[in-house]
Specification:
The structure is a single chain. The protein is α+β, with helices and mostly antiparallel strands. It has one domain. Helix content is about 50%, strand content about 15%. The protein is built from 5 helices and 4 strands; from the N terminus they run ααββααββα. The protein has a 4-stranded antiparallel beta sheet. The N and C termini lie far apart (about 85 Å). About 20% of the residues are buried.
Length: about 160
């Protein structure tokens, strides 16, 4: 019979004490669970056509802006659409979340309800990430925006306005 020459050699990771390995593993899990960076938000789903909740923590808005009327030419139209999109992005995100909140709570949107929610939704809107933008055939530009906050759906369903 042949005897293996390397039978007494242990892999290098076997020399590391078990407690060090366990501590390092736990730290890795804690660090990954505590972060919600842009790469995590972008990796939630490859779906860029759905407007709505991707999970309990992330709402996806699809926002489109057209170029100003009278603009001619591809470059000028796209530039105008991009400027309009960036100027209206935050407002459209607020409008979308206000409407979603009203739907979740089963109430209608009034001016006082809107004003009350604007302050409460600021933190949510600050956590928005533009996942992708693209141009349409009519020279308009569309942005897929994800708003992330832990327990977002529950938070919107239970927001109170006085």
């Amino acid at each position: 019979m042949l005897k293996c020459l390397f039978s007494n050699v242990q892999p290098p990771f076997m020399n590391v004490p078990k407690t060090v390995t366990i501590i390092a593993f736990l730290l890795l899990i804690i660090l990954q669970s505590c972060t919600h960076n842009q790469s995590y938000i972008k990796s939630l789903s490859n779906d860029i056509t759905t407007q709505g909740f991707l999970n309990d923590n992330c709402y996806q808005c699809i926002i489109t802006a057209k170029p100003d009327p009278g603009i001619e030419g591809l470059v000028a139209s796209r530039e105008s659409a991009h400027i309009n999109l960036m100027q209206s992005l935050e407002k459209q995100c607020y409008d979308t979340l206000i409407n979603v909140t009203a739907q979740l709570q089963g109430i209608s949107v009034t001016d006082s309800f809107q004003q009350c929610l604007l302050q409460q939704l600021k933190q949510c809107i600050d956590n928005k990430v533009i996942v992708v933008t693209y141009y349409n055939e009519d020279f308009s530009e569309t942005a897929v925006v994800r708003i992330y906050e832990k327990g977002l759906q529950q938070k919107l369903a239970t927001m109170q306005c006085k």
